[in-house]
């Protein structure tokens, strides 16, 4: 096993930067087609997919379809039910290398593994093993990053590989990139967001139709916005994990998921919407964080909240995500986008793949996070607005 | 002169990646203070500022203030009126190296030059000279990138340096990062935006107060949203240049500023707003681009347009910027943020500086852009909505 890992570590070093001359601007659709990069004649970055679920299916279609980035080549698909799922595919997916053994992925020549299984364990073990095997990793798992992000990023740096997680928060909404790069030049003060598409679809459907929550959940299930068991979405666990990730990016803070006060959205009733309407508003599951750096004090929570009809959040319906970020110097920034669904997550994952492929020799330093001296949940004022 | 450039090219190579171990997450405010990076003991990235105007002033305050990123050190300021401006400063700005000779900046030991002079020429000459001198460059000049972007990015790649321009479009609104990285995984179809803060401030003030355009312009001037000569803003030239940049990022297209149909916003009258209000809307200067890849056909224009009161654009007031981006797979993404003002632009510039400092050895491939076979302006339908 060690020999395999060594081989992969060495093969990773074969890709010197001069061999990789790829476009830094969006060029999908302008590509000369699969095969090789015209500018350098170098080979494409090989991608292996772990997990052929909603996201994996969308991702594999994108990587073998007409808008596949020329710098990427999907070669392997690993899934527990590989044989059965492969049999349902047609060309070109059916002709890739399918396996139900994760070890096959580790010992293959893929450069990057996309981790798209659901849940936290053993997904974090997969990510760790992939990095140890000398692969870069793109993950869509917010639980993995929320619980193990700092350690895994440190491991990635040590391995000289990249670990990216744009698909874990916001789907197609480019919030991870906005916080990690675009707003690095500000000192951020607060962040409010709708981070869970499933619960937002449930709430906005209840608002629209006046129906009971069970009916709205069934509809969200039918549209694949949520799993058969929607509790992680409705309890706020999913949004809480995403919020932990955003606190690290926005404030440089290490927060444990258990430190986020989470109030359930599962008990919302039609009457709650009627009450909200009387106040000219509606209800949304809001994730909030604000950081007072001088006092090293963080306030962080997820809860169903009354929002005014005039607010951005009231206008975000269905499985959309949204975030309002306030910086000390730039003021208020807002971002919205499709937060749920295979195609939305695939956009985030492919953006990460393209970024890794662009500079395979890049070493991304692991973040240095600190802990807030004080962490609190909803204030009395905010509690009054919680539903 | 050649010897100086060679010296700088060599000194640039002294910074191997192992000496630069900086945070990839937002850490301003968590820094141990100026002097050195605690993780590696390496020196900070030296920054020289060219142009001490609105943006330069804001940037220099940020880089010497309490929220200065630990990876950056402002050492030089170059301005035509250096002596006079230096005399007006206090500690610490007054103690930096000031000069009115650009050559001093080129022969100094700065790693990155921030180009913050206004206008296109000779700003592009400055950028070119800085790259040839072995410096990386961060620019806020949309005209430089719109007119000379591809050539300058090619030069930067050849020099093994970076040229970044996040501050040139959108101010604090992270749209350049969103398009270049976060949405690289999609195939973008269209882009609509309010890209000029000054004209938006003028229009929204006319809407709010019912005043004549001259009064609104005077107010925008007083607030430093626009220069004494607001024509580049009101004619749509500023927004047109930014749109050219976004077309390259979003669609991989090379567009000349002269190919963008631009309709003036300078002739809007209070009566136009009354008419718009009767239709339950208002007026905004909109920049639009949509690309049909199969037909290699681009539609691109800037014009004052009627927008419905319910639309995102109607709610964007003052010097705010906004963009609505539609992708084939991710659907609709929106971004808003402060588009004008020194602090907003400084956020964008500092984000670029931090990114360059993070990996000084990175080589960013120049984009490979193609030309659209067909470029058109407003369609008849859109013309009907133009004011």
Describe the structure.
The structure is a homodimer of 387-residue chains. The first copy, chain A, is of the alpha/beta class and 387 residues long. Chain A is 37% helix and 20% strand. Chain A has 14 helices and 13 strands. Chain A has helices at 2-13, 54-63, 82-87, 102-107, 123-132, 142-159, 175-182, 197-209, 213-222, 231-234, 237-251, 270-278, 342-358, 380-385; strands at 45-50, 72-78, 97-99, 112-115, 136-139, 163-164, 188-194, 261-262, 281-292, 297-308, 320-327, 331-338, 374-376. In chain A, the strands form two sheets. In chain A, strands 7, 8, 9, 10, 11, 12 and 13 form a seven-stranded mixed sheet that branches. The first copy, chain A, has a six-stranded parallel sheet with strand order 3-2-1-4-5-6, with helices on both faces. In chain A, helix 5 runs parallel beside helix 6, helix 6 (142-159) packs parallel to helix 11 and helix 8 (197-209) packs across helix 9 (213-222). The N and C termini of chain A lie far apart (54 Å).
Features:
14 helices; homodimer; alpha/beta; six-stranded parallel sheet; globular
Outline of this structure?
Helix content of chain A is 37%, strand content 20%.
Terminal residue distance of chain A:
54 Å
* Low-pLDDT sequence parts of chain A: 1-41
- The average pLDDT score of chain A comes to 88
Largest protein interface?
A-B, 76 and 76 residues
Radius of gyration of chain A: 21 Å
| SSE topology string of chain A | HEHEHEHEHEHEHEHHHHEHEEEEHEH
Question: Strand share of the residues of chain A?
Answer: 15-25%
Number of strands of chain A: 13
Continuous helix count of chain A: 14
């Amino acid at each position: 096993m060690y020999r395999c890992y060594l081989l992969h570590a060495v093969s990773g070093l074969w890709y010197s930067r001069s061999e990789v001359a790829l476009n830094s601007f969006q060029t999908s659709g302008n590509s000369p087609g699969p095969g090789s990069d015209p500018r350098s004649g170098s080979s494409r970055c090989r991608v292996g997919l772990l997990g052929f679920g909603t996201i994996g299916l969308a991702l594999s279609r994108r990587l073998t379809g007409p808008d596949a980035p020329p710098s990427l080549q999907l070669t392997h698909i690993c899934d527990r039910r590989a044989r059965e799922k492969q049999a349902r595919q047609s060309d070109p997916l059916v002709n890739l290398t399918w396996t139900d053994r994760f070890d096959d992925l580790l010992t293959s020549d893929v450069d990057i593994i996309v981790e798209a299984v659901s849940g936290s364990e053993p997904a974090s073990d997969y990510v760790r093993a992939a990095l140890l095997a000398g692969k870069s990793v793109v993950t869509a798992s917010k639980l993995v990053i929320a619980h193990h992000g700092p350690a895994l990023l440190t491991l990635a740096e040590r391995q000289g590989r990249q670990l990216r997680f744009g698909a874990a928060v916001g789907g197609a909404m480019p919030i991870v990139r906005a916080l990690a790069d675009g707003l690095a030049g500000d000192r951020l003060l607060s962040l409010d967001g709708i981070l869970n598409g499933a619960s937002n679809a449930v709430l906005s459907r209840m608002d629209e139709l006046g129906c009971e929550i069970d009916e709205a959940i069934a509809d969200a299930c039918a549209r694949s916005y949520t799993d058969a068991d929607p509790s992680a979405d409705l309890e706020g666990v999913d949004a809480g994990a995403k919020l932990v990730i955003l606190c690290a990016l926005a404030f440089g803070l290490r927060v444990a998921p258990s430190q986020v006060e989470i109030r359930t959205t599962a008990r919302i009733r039609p009457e709650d919407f009627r009450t909200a309407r009387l106040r000219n508003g509606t209800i949304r599951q809001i994730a909030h964080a604000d950081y007072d750096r001088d006092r090293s004090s963080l306030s962080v929570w997820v809860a169903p909240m009354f929002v005014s009809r005039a607010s951005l959040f009231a206008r975000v319906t269905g499985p959309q995500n949204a975030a309002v970020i306030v910086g000390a110097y730039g003021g208020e920034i807002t971002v919205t986008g499709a937060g749920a669904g295979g195609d939305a997550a695939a956009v985030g994952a492919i953006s990460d793949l393209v970024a890794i492929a662009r500079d395979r020799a890049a070493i991304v330093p692991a973040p240095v996070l600190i802990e807030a001296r004080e962490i609190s949940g909803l204030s009395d004022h905010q509690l009054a607005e919680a539903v």
